[in-house]
Design goal:
single chain; eight-stranded mixed β-sheet; alpha+beta; globular; 391 residues
Length: 391
């Protein structure tokens, strides 16, 4: 890929110099879904699909950008002066808002740029699979600015600046998990992250003869905004009820036993189910890290399965297609665990599958899923990876 990118770089930017290669991974959340906004833990890993870049400095204070994924072969580089980046770009080149947002945020934090930059991007993250291409692009751009312009931005700051760009410039009010996993990922490890405090630790993701298989239901996300907001409101109402008798700041301050103790306070049974998912999923995320540290992959798989059941029954963000994918996986030999991953209402499952059964998994799940739903699934076999970096 890099060689092809070098040819394109020369064509687009009109230079025969030797640009610097960079890479930023996507991410998949292994467990810990819908806990971030309740003050809990998530447990993602960076994956070996991602976005590559070639970058070099140039004279002046102008940024030139080109994407091999989104820009046509006859398109020139997108060009913007650092001092003229104020508002989002609309239209077919709206992808540039992610790197432009990074420039805007870095300026807000007092960074100055000693030269311009030419940046060419090309990625192999599958479209619409929910593997955090936006976070990968953002963190990658921070890494390029930091390394080539000597800004000395560490991994945690890179994640925070990227989240800020997406929230305030792009206008997507995401949490910190995606950017943190992309920035702070470590090969053969998953990251246990407390979304409230940003405390984090690594757990060994030593899969041995197993691989991570991401299965895309190819159902477009629907009802995301209204349903996500409704569930957050339901959790907030449950928290408000409990706070009348117990001084806590968030639902995930509670253990599962404590939620049972105070469940009488939650007047709406639907709200209690939402709270039960958040609290139990938070506990599962912590147990998942403990199980990997103990080398107990089987227990980790059982926790993944239980996570899906809770997302289906308590939080109610799965859809029939995701339930079919998980159910098919649970019945197959060599599957350690499988669950919905991401926000829900469409998207993907993540499964841990023994390598010798991977082909059978893809074949059987693909066939049976199409038979039961009339849709074709897409499969991506991957492994853990290091975070965004210069190559």
């Amino acid at each position: 890929m890099i060689d092809t990118m070098r040819d394109t770089f020369t064509r687009i930017f009109g230079t025969n110099s030797n640009p610097i290669p960079f890479f930023s991974p996507g991410r998949v959340n292994l467990i810990g879904e819908h806990t971030d906004h309740e003050g809990g833990y998530v447990f993602p890993c960076a994956i070996d699909f991602g976005i590559y870049a070639l970058a070099q400095t140039r004279p002046g204070r102008t940024l030139r950008l080109y994407s091999m994924n989104f820009d046509g072969t006859s398109s020139p580089a997108f060009e913007a002066a650092y001092d003229d980046i104020h508002a989002k770009i609309s239209g077919p080149r709206s992808w540039v808002n992610y790197p432009l947002g990074i420039v805007s945020v870095l300026k807000t934090h007092g960074f100055t740029f000693t030269s311009g930059l030419d940046i060419l991007y090309s990625g192999n993250l599958p479209d619409g699979a929910g593997l955090s291409s936006s976070a990968a692009l953002e963190v990658l751009t921070v890494r390029i600015f930091s390394d080539l312009l000597g800004l000395d931005i560490d991994g945690v700051k890179a994640a925070l600046y990227s989240q800020e760009a997406e929230n305030n410039f792009v206008g997507m009010h995401c949490g910190i998990m995606d950017q943190f996993a992309v920035s702070m990922g470590r090969k053969n490890n998953a990251v246990l992250l407390n979304c409230s405090t940003l405390e984090y630790s690594y757990a060994p993701l030593e899969l041995g003869n197993c691989r991570i298989i991401i299965t895309n239901s190819n159902v477009p996300h629907s009802l995301v905004g209204s349903e996500y907001n409704l569930r957050r409101t339901q959790c907030e109402e449950a928290l408000s009820d409990i706070k009348k008798v117990r001084d806590i700041s968030c639902l995930c301050d509670l253990s599962e036993d404590e939620l049972d103790e105070y469940s009488y306070c939650v007047k709406n049974p639907v709200n209690l189910r939402r709270a039960r998912h958040a609290v139990s999923e938070n506990a599962r995320a912590k147990r998942a890290a403990e199980s990997l540290k103990a080398g107990d992959l089987a227990k980790f798989g059982r926790l993944m399965n239980a996570s899906h059941v809770s997302l289906r029954d308590n939080y109610e963000v799965t859809i029939p297609e995701l339930d079919v994918l998980a159910g098919l996986a649970w019945e197959l030999p060599g599957v350690v665990g499988s669950r919905m991953t991401g926000g829900g209402f469409g998207g993907c499952t993540v499964s841990i599958v023994e390598s010798e059964h991977a082909e059978e998994f893809v074949r059987v799940v693909g066939r049976e899923y199409e038979s039961k739903t009339g849709r074709k699934a897409s499969f991506y076999t991957t492994g853990s990876a290091d975070g965004a970096r210069k190559l």
